[in-house]
Amino acid sequence: MIDQQTTESETCELRVIVGSGVAVRRFAASIGATNLFSLSGMGRLTVWPMYEDDHDALHRAYGTGDWSDQHIRLSSRDVEQCAKCSVGERLAYLEAIATADTFHQAAAAWLDGTMSVRPTSLSLNTAGQHIYRPRRLWPLNMALGALGITPTSPETDAMAESGLGQFASNADLMANAMPAAS
Questions:
Q1: What pTM did the predictor assign?
Q2: What does the alpha-carbon distance between residue 65 and residue 85 come to, in Å, rounded to a whole number?
Q3: How far apart are CA 98 and CA 109, in angstroms?
Q4: Per residue in 102-151, pLDDT tens?
Q5: Contact 31, 117 (CB under 8 A)
């Protein structure tokens, strides 16, 4: 799970498109991607781990547009594509990067073609710094909450409830998650 606990040499990066199977398939189909996975947690979500090469291919397919100033790797054309792919469905973009001394999350979500969580981020130096924002207001949890994933107890969060919290990185997800049915 990506959180504030990583070793000195380890960098954990999770960058995904997650949502209903229909919406995620629409988005991944922009470049013919087929490496989709099913999450076993609440909501039965489908997830597509997105790498830089995938993002570059998406921009070749539909253009780049302007980049967000919200510390999130989404361009204006990415936002438009997410809205288009979420019509009648639910979709979110999530990114999380953790190293031994930094922690960053960013996310956005769309429901039925409309942005329901605007791009938001949380970054900090983890050396002795405490996060005062409640976990339910962390970007990943807010976006997953918009998709209908809610904690069942005060000890859990939307990342854990969705099943996504068990994966530390895209590589971990690809190696250990269940492939989505086609």
A1: 0.86
A2: 17
A3: 21
A4: 788 899 999 999 999 999 888 876 655 556 777 778 899 899 999 999 88
A5: no
